[in-house]
Write a structure and sequence with these properties.
two-stranded antiparallel ribbon; membrane; alpha+beta; transmembrane; transmembrane helix; 1 helix
């Protein structure tokens, strides 16, 4: 009878330890995934000065905020042929 009680207590403690290890592992994994997501998807607010022209023909530099997300971007470029001809003292591109 005493042996059975001791075994039940030991099994209970082992189950508690396993559950605690699983929970701690899941929490650490969650923080790691969130940390990686924050690290790879950094959002930065960039202030760019844009030259604006108003109706009264006054040129003024005004700041504009852009939200930039850093990520991998695949850029494809299409190329077209350019014909250059020289006539007199000027160059024409067609």
């Amino acid at each position: 009878m005493v042996v059975i009680e001791v075994m039940v207590v030991m099994i209970g403690k082992m189950v508690m330890v396993v559950v605690m290890v699983v929970v701690i592992t899941m929490v650490l994994l969650m923080f790691t995934v969130v940390g990686m997501e924050v690290m790879f998807k950094v959002i930065v607010v960039v202030r760019i000065m844009k030259l604006q022209r108003y109706i009264d023909h006054d040129w003024k530099m005004t700041p504009i905020d852009f939200q930039v997300t850093w990520s991998m971007v695949k850029v494809t470029v299409t190329r077209s042929k350019v014909n250059v001809t020289v006539t007199r003292n000027s160059t024409m591109v067609s």
